[in-house]
Every structure is written in structure tokens, then in C-alpha cells.
Amino acid sequence: MPEMKDAPIAQPPSPSNPLEGGCLCGEVRFRVTAPFVASGYCHCTRCQRRTGTASSVSARVPREGFELLQGAEHVRAFRPPTGGKAKVFCSNCGSALCSGELDSDELIAIRLGALDSDPGIRPHYRQFVDWAASWEPIPDDGLMRHAGERGG
Ligand SMILES: [Zn+2]
Ligand SMILES: [Zn+2]
Hints:
About 5% of the residues lie in helices and about 30% in strands.
């Protein structure tokens, strides 16, 4: 995994080093207590639509390491009829939180922008690059590129 030269990476989250995050309005708060196992950008059309941007950046954590602290009544999930993971968001402010089934999936993909501080991992791949927006070139950053979904 390539390391960024300009900024040291924080210690990964753990039970003794929890990392918190939340939505824009502050109603939904969550905690991560396990290290992220992968992180990357997704350039798929669904991510473009749901974020209004060219890509979405997330990191995957085992579900046991993800805990909702408050705001469960605002948490909603959109399950695209065309497939793909459930897109979990705050229904009060619209903020993207994560993807995956919070009570059954093995891994939950947390949106890095929802975290309060350094996740202890850096994005190391880009997926669905064949679907990338025409108006924003993919940066020449050396990250592994996958035409479609990254396996595993
Ligand atoms: Zn909110
Ligand atoms: Zn995507």
C-alpha cells in the first residue's frame, strides 16, 4: 500500500483508540473500533448520482467494529433496484454515511468524509474507472485501477 509522503498516518481505530463520525446535521453519530481493511475511490454512476460528485471515497471495516451511537431514527438506506450495496444516509440532512446492511453484512464501507479525523488508512485503489466522469480526469496518483468492481 503506497504511503503519502507529506502526512503521517494516524493509528488505526481499535477498542482503545475509537474513531467517531457523523452526519452534517449532527443527529447521527457512530463509532469505529476496528482497523479498516481496505479503502478506495468508486467512480461508478450510482456514486456519482448519490454524491453529486465525480467519485466517492470509502473504507471498509468489519461490521463488529461499527457501532451506531445516536440518531438511529434518522438512518435510512436506499437499496438500488439495479443492484449494489444499500446506501445508508441521514434522512434529516441527506449526508452519506456508509454502504452495506448494518445488521448482516460482513463489511461496512464508511464514507471517509463522515469521519471526525484520520482513519488510519489511505485510499489505495480506484474502481469502476470505466464509468468515470468525462469532466474530471482520474488523477495520475499511482493508485491501483479496476475497470469495474474491485474484487474482495
Ligand atoms: Zn444528519
Ligand atoms: Zn460506486
